[in-house]
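User: what does the whole thing look like in 3D?
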Amino acid sequence: MQNHDGDVVESKTESITSIQTSEIDDWANFRDDDIMKQQSAIQAEEAVKIPFVGDKEPLLTLAAEYQSGSPILQEKIKVLSEQYAAIRRTRGDGNCFFRSFMFAYLEHILESQDRAEVDRIKVNVEQCRKTLLSLGYAEFTFEDFFALFLEQLESVLSGNEASISHEELVQRSRDQSISDCVVMFFRFITSGELKKRSEFYEPFVQGLTNGTVEQFCKSSVEPMGEESDHVHITALSDALGVPIRILYLDRSCDDKGSISVNHHDFTPAPGNPTNDNANAVKPFITLLYRPGHYDILYPK
Amino acid sequence: MAEDKYNRKNPAVKRILQEVKEMQSNPSDDFMSLPLEENIFEWQFAITGPRDSEFEGGIYHGRIQLPAEYPFKPPSFMLLTPNGRFETQTKICLSISNHHPEHWQPSWSVRTALVALIAFMPTSPNGALGSLDYPKEERKALAIKSRDAAPTFGSPEPKAN
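Assistant: Here's the predicted 3D structure for the full assembly of 461 residues, as structure tokens:
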């Protein structure tokens, strides 16, 4: 490793070489413990700023954030506020997409009491379990996460012993022992779907990392804290048969300079048991994407 | 096993008990590993040296510590039997294998990590910390010696590293 890196460095100018070589030495001295200490320090820093899932805030707070920022963003937030009333922020710990999806989905079930949807998603979850087994995953590595998600799903339906209130849902989403396990459940689901349809996903994955689907799952899907891209979103939406709408808040604008907020609907592809009618379903999960981060949006 | 003193709702405890069960019901010729009776977060293992290598025939003992956040955080490994590839009584740096700690994932287990450790023995240490690069003959001698006496395991208390 070091020799290889050294070769690369040598091709650069002399003065840069000495600096870069010393940096490489430093990195080589980073041991597992140091890497993990650094990781938990970053996590602790983020934790102070915001819980895993924040409170619902009026969209005005988003506008306030950009008050002295880019005029394009200010304008876009204005456009956004015509249709959306509120935002719920999630912690920027690399799990924000999965965490946002978790809360938005469970909150939707809690508020709609849509038992048909719960029955439907359970069929897909069962399919995902079979997929993981057929891919060679040991059941003990994922069964606890599956059980915990199904438990949450039951608990947001009213009328049973385990039923919880909205307030309790918020609390659970902030409780690491529950929240992280549900995030992990979604990571397993996403990884299983990507591997099951690896031929389909290969070109998308290669566009991102230049590696195989297998490698991508190992480095960017299954480890906690690895950020999600459109590939993760597509796979999760496909696997669970849940459409997802993402609004993009970035500085892009069209040729004529007119301002609109782009959105993309991730519509579950046919193939999984209950996905056939998914085209007809309007997304009930809306997330706001700002480069590097996802939060939950609430329509008016 | 003293399972009662653990909170079975704790995700780590639940998972570890599952792994113990799985380890017992699917024994391997290449390794054995079980937690201490007093502490399920502290395991011991014995691995056999990989075939067609200078470690063949050796039996190597070691310790595994599972963190409270297991399986979200990786286990750490330490060998107790002199082997010529890893220092004993020193945490093995898995960064140099495919098991980077920052990429540790809950679909891995003590079993997969042990399999990786065995596969890792005949690879070149490339100067990694905690690695040794003894000549083949010495490693062979250590492999033979390893069968004579298993190292005694001092104290069940996890030691500071």
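In plain terms: The two ends of chain A are 55 Å apart (CA to CA). Chain A touches chain B through 29 residues (CB under 8 Å).
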